[in-house]
């Protein structure tokens, strides 16, 4: 596991040496962190995540216009296996609006809200293992030096405050195309809202990375490695997750 994580990180660091071509769809998310990217008008994206403890999270996003996206998702843990299913307490809701399109020297700017966290829901703390982003502001800028890649950053305020940590947090990351079929994504979530007395994190932030493969036309398969810094309390190794997404037009 440690060797695999190091290899994946090495790909992220040196991926700028590879040539790529632009994807027809903007990157809306890295691993967990939102970007300023949106779906094309009249399109929808189906998304399925499979994670630890038999967890599944399924969702759909709809591009109502080129600058306005809405989405819903739902899931739970112990769905896979023989233990009783533990459903998430509510349906996750997402809204994203782009305020400014990307220019030659300035980034795209979007604001949004996302109520869906990641991992197990902890009822006693009224939060997920990784808190939802809540209200956020995202910045994204694309470049084409030795192939396309994007830089992303954002600030967010989560409504998951059952652990009494109400701080504003932030994140940054990148995506890099490797040829026409592969994209490497990486992000660092500062997790400033997950370092209090009741926190599930130890204050070091969450480093996540993933490899996204366009398997067939608009079908993507993705392997994500989460918490490479082992920030979660009691964590002895990173988490592996599988993600499948599909884009279609109305």
Characterize the structure shown.
The chain is mainly beta and 250 residues long. The chain has one domain (2-244): monomeric porin ompg (Porin), CATH 2.40.160. Helices cover 5% and strands 50% of the residues. The chain has one helix and 15 strands; from the N terminus they run H-E-E-E-E-E-E-E-E-E-E-E-E-E-E-E. The chain has one helix at residues 2-14, and strands spanning 43-51, 55-65, 68-77, 86-87, 92-100, 108-114, 118-122, 127-130, 134-143, 149-157, 169-178, 182-189, 206-216, 219-226, 239-249. The strands form two sheets. A twelve-stranded antiparallel β-barrel has the order 1-2-3-5-6-9-10-11-12-13-14-15. Strand 3 (68-77) and strand 4 (86-87) form a beta hairpin. The longest helix has 13 residues, at 2-14. The radius of gyration is 17 Å and the shape is globular.
**Integer count of domains:** 1
Which residues form runs of ≥5 with pLDDT under 50? Answer: 2-22
Shape: globular
Q: Please, what is the CATH homologous superfamily?
A: monomeric porin ompg
Strand content: over 45%
Radius of gyration: 17 Å
Biggest sheet character: 12 strands, antiparallel, barrel
Instruction: Predict the CATH topology.
Output: Porin
Number of helices: 1
Write the H/E string, N to C.
HEEEEEEEEEEEEEEE
CATH class: Mainly Beta
- Going across the biggest sheet, name each strand in turn: 1-2-3-5-6-9-10-11-12-13-14-15
How many strand segments? 15
SS-based structural class? mainly beta
Helix content: under 10%
First and last CA, distance: 41 Å
Mean pLDDT: 90
Give me the CATH architecture, please.
Answer: Beta Barrel
């Amino acid at each position: 596991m440690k060797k695999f994580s190091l290899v994946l990180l090495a790909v992220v660091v040196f991926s700028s040496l590879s040539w790529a071509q632009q994807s027809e769809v903007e990157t809306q998310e890295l691993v967990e962190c939102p970007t300023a990217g949106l779906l094309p008008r009249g399109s929808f994206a189906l998304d399925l995540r499979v994670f630890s403890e038999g967890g599944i999270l399924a969702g759909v996003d709809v591009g109502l216009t080129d600058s306005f996206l809405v989405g819903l998702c739902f899931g739970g843990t112990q769905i896979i296996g023989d233990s009783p299913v533990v459903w998430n307490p509510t349906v996750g809701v997402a809204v994203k609006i782009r305020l400014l399109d990307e220019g030659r020297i300035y980034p795209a700017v979007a604001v949004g809200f996302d109520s869906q966290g990641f991992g197990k829901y902890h009822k006693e703390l009224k939060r997920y293992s990784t808190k939802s982003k809540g209200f956020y502001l995202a910045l994204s800028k694309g470049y084409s030096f030795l192939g396309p890649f994007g830089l992303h950053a954002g600030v967010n305020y989560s409504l998951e405050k059952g652990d009494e940590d109400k701080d504003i947090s932030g994140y940054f990351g990148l995506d890099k195309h490797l040829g026409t079929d592969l994209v490497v994504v990486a992000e660092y979530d500062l997790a400033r809202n997950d370092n209090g007395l009741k926190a599930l994190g130890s204050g070091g932030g969450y480093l996540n990375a993933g490899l996204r493969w366009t398997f067939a036309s608009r079908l993507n398969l993705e392997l994500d490695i989460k918490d490479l810094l082992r920030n979660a309390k009691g964590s002895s190794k990173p988490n592996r997750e599988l993600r499948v997404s599909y884009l279609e037009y109305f």
